[in-house]
Design goal:
The protein is α+β, with helices and mostly antiparallel strands. It has three helices and seven strands; from the N terminus they run βααββββββα. β4 (about 75-85) and β5 (about 90-100) form a beta hairpin.
């Protein structure tokens, strides 16, 4: 699906990200997705504080990761995060690539649903606040 809006964030693989094989442990890619997601949410003006103020949380209900090559200590990467679905759920797609070569390292996506923070009820339709934040990118 064509991205509605995208943002890019940079990361550098650190010692604490590595596994005993001296490559980034597979579970740390969820952290990298979160870094990308934060950059994307900031770009549209709907970061976690804005979500809280709007009365909605957006928990992850599904995550998919596909690994192509490993990140190594000190390697710089770019995380491109894109909103690819938004009408009944929020789907954010990710591409992690080597900053220097542009080679694909990892792809994936997370799926989120709006949760009314007062009632704890899942929303079956995107709340107006997210529609407003995405409106400039939908034109």
């Amino acid at each position: 699906m064509k991205p509605v809006v995208s943002a890019t964030a940079a990361v550098r693989a650190q010692f604490y990200d590595l596994d005993p094989m001296n490559i980034v442990w597979h579970g740390n890619y969820a952290k990298f997705f979160e870094i990308g997601r934060c950059a994307l949410l900031a770009k549209i003006g709907y970061d976690y504080r804005a979500m809280e103020a709007s009365g909605y949380a957006w928990p992850v209900i599904d995550m998919h990761v596909r690994y192509y090559r490993s990140l190594e200590l000190g390697q710089e990467a770019e995380i491109v995060s894109s909103v690819t679905e938004w009408e009944n759920r929020l789907k954010i797609s990710y591409l992690i690539k080597d900053k220097e070569t542009g080679k694909k390292i990892t792809t994936g996506h997370t799926v989120h649903v709006a949760l009314d923070m007062r009632s704890k009820e899942m929303q079956w339709e995107t709340p107006p606040v997210l529609r407003e934040k995405l409106a400039p990118y939908l034109a």
